[in-house]
Amino acid sequence: MQELSARAAGQGAGRGPIVQAVRAAKLLTVSSSKGGACKTTTARNLAVIAAHAGIRVATVDLDAQQTLTIWHKRRPGAAPAIDHRAIPTRDCNDRIAALVASGGFDLVIVDTPPGVEGYPAEMRMLVRKSHFCLLTTQQQSADLDSVIGWSEIVRREGARFAFLLSRTFRNRRNYSEAKQRLIEAGPLCPFDIRDLASVDRTDKLGVGNIEIRGDLCGEDFKGVWRYVSRELGLGDGE
């Protein structure tokens, strides 16, 4: 998806200036086939970590409920800047492509609607254009069935992806069973996100979990960011 700007006609010595290449952003799509899978929480937390790392990041909210948009409006003015757009899903692909190609950002993170079945053509095109997709899921069997089915479509579109276990209870038997099922179905992010009350707190405050001192979910998201940033070619995530 890397796009370069056109060079001036007759470039070279004595033929006028050369137009500098515009570097396109990396596109990360956070997607799932069910609601409650921690898509919005993941999108905003990865954006916050990226912003703290000095990465120019924009978030895109495709959800009609605009949960990510509401969080962004609550964000403190002193916090690292995150650009944000709320875009109707029906019109999303051209507008996201323009944002990626603008040269204004290093990373664009897209938060998709609760279910993908309502916009099958738009979602297939989006994942096809993405540099990487995170497919979030809880550890219950019904959620795993749903996200594994969605992953088969993502794979057919030729997209690079990994599953991300979210809202986890690590002391329950179905936690290890869920990990095994996902590993058998495709790549699994080696970090998961625990189900902790601090997630709701950061939503109300407009901050990321890493912006709460000592927060355990913040440490979980740091691990996810290290994994995703390497997959995107944005460095080692430090």
Write the layout of secondary structure elements.
Layout: E1 26-31, H1 39-52, E2 57-61, H2 67-74, E3 83-86, H3 92-101, E4 107-111, H4 120-129, E5 132-137, H5 141-156, E6 161-165, H6 173-185, H7 198-205, H8 216-232
Parallel strand pairs: 1-4, 1-5, 2-3, 2-4, 5-6
Helix pairs in contact: 1-2, 1-8, 5-6
Notes on the protein architecture:
The chain has a 6-stranded parallel sheet, sandwiched between helices. The two termini are 25 Å apart. Helices cover 40% and strands 13% of the residues. The protein is of the alpha/beta class and 238 residues long. Strand 2 (57-61), helix 2 (67-74) and strand 3 (83-86) form a beta-alpha-beta unit. The radius of gyration is 18 Å and the shape is globular. It has a single domain (27-232), classed as P-loop containing nucleotide triphosphate hydrolases (Rossmann fold), CATH 3.40.50.
